[in-house]
Amino acid sequence: MNATKRPRVVIIGAGFGGLTAAKALKNAPVDVTLIDRRNHHLFQPLLYQVATAGLAPNQIATPIRAIVRQQKNVRVELGTVEAIDPAQRHVVLGDRHVPYDYLIVATGARHAYFGHDDWERFAPGLKTLEDATEQRKRILLAFERAELEPDPAERAALTTFVVIGGGPTGVETAGAIAELANKALARDYRRIDPKSARIILVEAAPRILGNFPPDLSEHARRALEKLGVEVRIGNAVTKVDETGVTLGGEHIGSRCVIWAAGVQSSPAARWLSLPADRAGRAIIGGDLRAPHHPNIFIIGDCAAVNGADGKQLPGVAPVAKQQGDYAARVIKAEFEGNPLAEPFGYIDYGNLATVGRKAAVADFRGFHLKGFIGWFVWSAAHIYYLIGFKNRIAVALDWVWSYLTFERGARLITGDITDEAPAATAKRDAA
Amino acid sequence: MNATKRPRVVIIGAGFGGLTAAKALKNAPVDVTLIDRRNHHLFQPLLYQVATAGLAPNQIATPIRAIVRQQKNVRVELGTVEAIDPAQRHVVLGDRHVPYDYLIVATGARHAYFGHDDWERFAPGLKTLEDATEQRKRILLAFERAELEPDPAERAALTTFVVIGGGPTGVETAGAIAELANKALARDYRRIDPKSARIILVEAAPRILGNFPPDLSEHARRALEKLGVEVRIGNAVTKVDETGVTLGGEHIGSRCVIWAAGVQSSPAARWLSLPADRAGRAIIGGDLRAPHHPNIFIIGDCAAVNGADGKQLPGVAPVAKQQGDYAARVIKAEFEGNPLAEPFGYIDYGNLATVGRKAAVADFRGFHLKGFIGWFVWSAAHIYYLIGFKNRIAVALDWVWSYLTFERGARLITGDITDEAPAATAKRDAA
Predict the structure, then answer these.
(1) Which of A229, A334, B109, B401 places its Cα 20 to 30 Å from the Cα of B240?
(2) In the Enzyme Commission scheme, what number(s) does this protein have (chains A, B) (predicted)?
(3) Domains along chain A?
(4) Tens of pLDDT along A320-336?
């Protein structure tokens, strides 16, 4: 680094971690380049709302450029990183090489099938806006096809929804599908009754929401069952195909299976030849630096970092944000000739999950909230953290509206549906 | 038709015409089946706003089922009509046959290239939500690529936008791109200045907005030029390819060309072997009935009907709506044993087009409005006609927000962008 040139900090990924790091470098004497494959920051905790037609894509996504517009030391570049060259100190995007003095890798994770990649076709996961609009299409088309389907067995399979994975995403998705069927769609069909749809939540562990205290898991299970969701715990899925899901010995006929069971890290560890855990996360220490590359920080869902209790920190937004902030503070401190000595320490403010309206569970350091008050806190927290003032208002309005009317604002089937048109076989001339 | 069974009215297409017909049959003793390829009604006059990132798809689209939910004699079916069998009196959707006693064909139109279908790849048109999100992606990606492009000539081509066709859609699109570049994006890039983008509106006729009186055309032209749009009139496009547009002898380098120049009817005339005009519209009389098939009505953009002045009625929403209402009244009158004698008569309440904020032109039977008051009337009219109470509020809020902040709410690039990633050739290590 020479004195005449400002150090270059390159951040890969504009998720919670990368964006927080960029913002924390606001007044630092550095030039920041923020690289992302997308032009928008996505508020992933609400992605399931898009998948279940509760919110529209633009309500949970904000253009990255708009977020950092005022911060003149940040440059945004759209592009897909293919490799990192720590010797040359640059990031490789095809023929384009972006040089860095400091690098923050915050490339997140995608859903994973752990050796069952063939399941993806029948049970897609939920990580991007495109994933969400695709799931929305699948869910809504299932009802459309059921309305036209003369065969009762096929009709039952079309209105059976299986959500695999009992973590927060699975619980929230199952609850939202139940509300969609029971309320928003309830009066919209003439031949089928959406209220008779089966929604099944499958979890291999002995309880759902394994990261929450047992009493809140139990509360969530009962709240789901009240919504009409069948909760199947302690049962591992052994097969997913076009006919449905096999669970233990039982086959559940379903035309719409949703995967919320596992994630796989982006290839940060592979790019840097670092040891990784089972999910591909780079195993790093409390300084968040890549071993042997002290000018590279790895944060968020692509990093495996242990907390004070020796357990691995969860892949949630608050961890990514606090790590982004920490990495930025370390970089700033180095210029000020006053290197930060203490390692990263995660402050856990609590854990939230919602089960439809009026029911959520919240665990604030042992202080448990449930039911409507839990839901209220959940809503307030999510609206507060949604980036962008306007989105906050729009989401709040949408929720108030949904609450009052049970209406869904974003019930659009977009994309090609002709390939997947119902193969109705009965002619109804005689009817 | 026997006495024990209610007559079946089948409506193909839930656009302005079909939906109005369905609603007008609310209290009629008939069973209505409303068939559409999409699950949503689209407010097409505002589609250009989605294409230019001003509104989100869900703000201009409403689920058809939600619109007719309260109307118990309407059944909605999702499906693609392939043929009509007037002898058997049914509509063919693959193996599915839907029988009718009365049929209303309201299948609309798509954009057309009149013998230049190879242009579509480089100059897509705007008729569906998917068209609009695709155009939004192309427009926004052009700026993203320009930001990364080292070659000045290529950068200029990336920030040159050519809109072909000077009707309302072309005028509105060109104005909206100019505002996007001059306002919403103005401060978002570090290397390029979006305000220096070239927006060119091309019209082969001697003036834009040919359906409006000449003074309003002239006002619109000046308003566009004030926004920085180059208006090229009396010039026919002779070529469109990956390098740009050829106009007379001149080649304009552009990576984003938008087609707003012509429409082609859906195949209603072909389905029924009826004579059609150049755009494929079925040529029918004032009774709106298909010749030789008195129980089939053809309305909206797939019908060529002359007005009282002998000129063909324009392909606009008010014509379709009034025709839908007329067809429904004719059908109702037939049951009441009191057949309607008078032919369809179009009541023209006026013509509106907008040129960005603060400027619109309106022609109400010779009473002309321009500028801000025109814009205000335009906004009020469009919000009023947007179907769905909530959409009205959401769109109004969005417009007020845009007006106050010049911000764009829906600036998302979705869909695959990896195939189209900028082929940047310069390495910037040396920089």
Answers:
(1) B109
(2) 1.6.5.9
(3) 8-111+263-335 (3.50.50.60), 113-261 (3.50.50.100)
(4) 999 999 999 999 998 88
